[in-house]
Design brief:
CATH class of the largest domain: Alpha Beta
CATH architecture of the largest domain: 3-Layer(aba) Sandwich
CATH superfamily of the largest domain: Glycogen Phosphorylase B
Number of helices: 11
Number of domains: 2
Distance between the termini: 16 Å
Helix content: 25-40%
Strand order of the largest sheet: 3-2-1-4-5-6-7
Largest sheet: 7 strands, parallel
Radius of gyration: 20 Å
Mean pLDDT: 91
Number of strands: 13
Amino acid sequence: MNILSIAYPLAPVGPCAVGGAEQILTDLDAALVASGACSLVIARGDSHPAGELFPIALPRSRYLDATAKRWCRLQIQRTIDQLLEARRVDLVHLHDMNFDECRLPADIPVVVTLHMPLMWYPPHAFGPPRRNWIFVCVSESQRRLCPADLPSPRLIENGVQIPAPRSKDVCRAGFAVALARICPEKNLHEALEAGTMADTPVYIGGQVFPYPEHERYFTERIAPLLGTSKPSARHVFLGALSQQRKQELLARASCLLHPTLAPETSSLVAMEAMASGTPVIAYPSGALAEIVEDGVTGFLVDNVRDMAQAIRSVHRLSPAACRAHAGRRFSKRNMVGRYFALYEELTNHPTRRLYA
């Protein structure tokens, strides 16, 4: 089976992927290669997929303005056309939020995973209906918001690696973590404010993408709160983190703070935290109300003051309960198996060996 995956062109794919869509693509690509299938990946040039990379160069402009985005779209379409002319492709899996701009043959099945909130896609993205396209939602809350004329979207929840059980819990350090893109809708400055109120240092990890509003948000709302609080709650910005470094932080942190204002379709970092035995304190935005079991695997709160109080109370929650919840709901193995079953359904290629 030959699967072509198309990534968002401005974020790399591979072991160091930081975005949720890129992490899911990376996991599926690695599983395909491990199964003996052929994985073809169109992604940013510095990506490191397990399969065969067809690279997209980044635009030369400093900021990702409309001109730079159009340039990227042209690069992607040119690469798609060249690849389809040279190679057999049984199925295309689109992870790019601009999926509707891809011109693809009508005789190849296409899977589109909707990684973003539906209102972030242009209104015309979902129509007119395409006979050979299947849309996949990553949470029930997202599927409920799908347009009425979108034909039977599938539901495949995201999944993460579940660590092997430990003989005893690691020693938790006295800091909280907040891990996300650095942008206004992720609202990370409120995690810092809550940490200050709770006398708890907050370590922030995430990438500042070259959008003017993202850089301005970091300069005006995040930077002033770093290194200026009292020594017992000294906040630190760590920048973009490798997957290994992120896992190490989550395993040692007292909790993950997730004060997002975006209507989250999923949250890999919340799933990874719980898989590490780390409770999640989050605003109930989008799918987070489905992911966090309030009072068991974390707390759902509505404001900075309540988040600070939850930080003080998080020691009451059981790491074992967090891990058990993640294992039941958010296993990467289950996610990959469901995608492979969908690939089989659409291509008639047997996949029983693909993820044994």
